[in-house]
């Protein structure tokens, strides 16, 4: 299967109208345990003239072994990047969609803290649903882009940065909860993970409001 490399076609077009693009992508939405994470990557007109880093793809299309190197080059390529989080407890409290909005809002705040200005900026959100506008306290201009993580290089950068960061976090949580094998399944519903839940019960990092016992395998 031929993998299409992401390009900067849309970003360059939009940067004729906007000063900045803040691209977002989420990781961990379908997991049974751990936080949901949203990566943010900032692109300006000067940055959009630079060559896309070799190997940059949607994080799902990059092997786990290669992801850290690709993420490091992506972070060095964009003007700023950040990862926002919403915990399992927040997901249980407010639901996954609002939790995605919280994580996205925190990622945006992270790049603003690095100097990105929201005035004159456009937020590109992978997918077909705007989950951030109603949550972030500042007015945002948001455009949802279906398959943005595949086609838009700046969204691919946000995707791989968020994926590597969340995977590392799940590896850290694994140290205190090794029975769930989060170092391997990253909190998703692998057979081993579900078996450990049946045998041991839920940890404080599981999304307790979900029907975990009957969850399908998401790989």
TrEMBL record:
One GO cellular component term: ribonuclease H2 complex
Catalysed reaction equations from the record: Endonucleolytic cleavage to 5'-phosphomonoester
Coiled coil segments of this chain: none
Repeat as UniProt keyword: no
Keyword Electron transport assigned: no
Cofactor binding note from Swiss-Prot or TrEMBL: Manganese or magnesium. Binds 1 divalent metal ion per monomer in the absence of substrate. May bind a second metal ion after substrate binding.
Sequence ranges assigned to domain RNase H type-2 in this UniProt record: 19-219
Keywords, ordered alphabetically: Cytoplasm, Endonuclease, Hydrolase, Manganese, Metal-binding, Nuclease
Species: Microbacterium aerolatum
Role according to the record: Endonuclease that specifically degrades the RNA of RNA-DNA hybrids.
Cofactor: Mn(2+); Mg(2+)
Protein EC: 3.1.26.4
Family: Belongs to the RNase HII family.
InterPro entries: RNase_HII (IPR022898), RNase_HII/HIII (IPR001352), RNase_HII/HIII_dom (IPR024567), RNaseH-like_sf (IPR012337), RNaseH_sf (IPR036397)
Gene of this entry: rnhB
Gene Ontology BP terms: DNA replication, removal of RNA primer; mismatch repair
GO molecular function, one term: metal ion binding
Stored PROSITE patterns: RNASE_H_2
Binding site for a divalent metal cation: 25-26, 126
Protein name listed in UniProt: Ribonuclease
Subcellular location: Cytoplasm
Domain of life: Bacteria
Location (main, coarse): cytoplasm
């Amino acid at each position: 299967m031929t993998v299409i490399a992401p390009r900067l076609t849309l970003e360059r077009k939009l940067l004729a109208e906007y000063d900045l693009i803040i691209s977002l992508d989420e990781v961990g939405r379908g997991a049974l345990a751990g936080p949901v994470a949203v990566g943010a990557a900032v692109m300006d007109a000067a940055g959009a003239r630079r060559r896309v880093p070799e190997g940059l793809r949607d994080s799902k299309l990059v092997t786990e072994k290669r992801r850290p190197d690709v993420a490091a080059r992506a972070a060095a390529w964009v003007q700023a990047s950040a990862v926002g989080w919403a915990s399992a407890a927040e997901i249980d409290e407010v639901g996954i969609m609002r939790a995605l909005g919280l994580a996205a809002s925190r990622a945006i705040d992270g790049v603003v803290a690095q100097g990105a200005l929201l005035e004159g900026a456009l937020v590109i959100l992978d997918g077909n649903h705007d989950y951030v506008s109603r949550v972030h306290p500042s007015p945002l201009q948001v455009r949802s882009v279906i398959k943005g993580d595949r086609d838009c290089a700046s969204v691919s950068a946000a995707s791989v940065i968020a994926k590597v960061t969340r995977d590392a976090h799940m590896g850290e949580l694994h140290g205190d909860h090794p029975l769930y094998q989060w170092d391997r399944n990253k909190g998703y519903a692998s057979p081993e993970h579900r078996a450990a839940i049946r045998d041991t019960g839920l940890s404080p990092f599981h999304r307790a409001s979900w029907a975990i016992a009957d969850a399908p395998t998401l790989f």
